[in-house]
Design brief:
This protein is 75% helix and 0% strand. The protein has 306 residues and is mainly α. The protein has one domain (17-298).
Length: 306
Amino acid sequence: MSSGAGAPSGGGAQPGWVAEFALLGAVWGASFLFMRLGALDFGALGTAFLRTCIAAAVLLPLLIWSGHFGVLRQRWRAIFLMGLLNSALPFALFSFAVMHISTGLSGILNATTPLWGAIVAWAWLHDKPSRWRVLGLALGFVGVAALSWDKAQFGQQNASGWAVLACLAATLFYGVGGTFAKRYLSGVPPLATATGSQIGASLVLLAPAVATTPALHGGPLPGWQSWAAVVALAVVCTAFAYVLFFRLIERGGAPRALAVTFLIPVFAVGYGVVLLGEALTPQMLVCGAVIVLGTALATGLLKPRS
């Protein structure tokens, strides 16, 4: 998941907010499924590039229609850097990860995004956490360690360990991107940030994607299923999801909207089990619950009485 800067904070939740909240969780949960289907033919970098490029093509007309294109021209350097941190790197890392571990496990590890966000804000913005938030950070990473300790294989035949590290690196970049947006993109219209970040990410990913996409180097041509997956990934899970996310911030407030992080693993695991035949283990359920609990404490969404 990713977020932008400058969105209004909103007050109480408006009617229909819960349904849209669930829809966003379902959409972002599906991104892991689509990444896996696309990466099998396009490779990790090719999938990430197509995702950002198509999303930018969808968002750009909306940005022009909104009248905020001038903001993108004025702030393009910071917005493009946001694209590197919040889209290019994490999209490529997750696309690599889902080729080696289950989409459900990737979705659970994605829930560590707010943990990294809290740590980065602590280190960068000196936003010192309370003792409950520190406990949440510790719980979250204990959950990650327990979930992934038996996946730590780094050989050529089994790269599951690298895949787990790729997921954690991706969520770290999300955390850095969120703090970067708060520091340097405050007041920028969200649609300008969303569109410009996808354009910037596409420019970063273009050359690596051309160099590594199998079909461009004698490999088999991607089938219609792979094309459909990357188009859905770009249009539904990126462009549409951005618009829906910022709409949720307006209608329900930023804290409620960010809580969608807890819903994404539920859908990611469900899609993997039903559509890909992936296993759902007790370890995933227990550790996933620990990660979600730790994240809720670390972000202040769960505030026990002192």
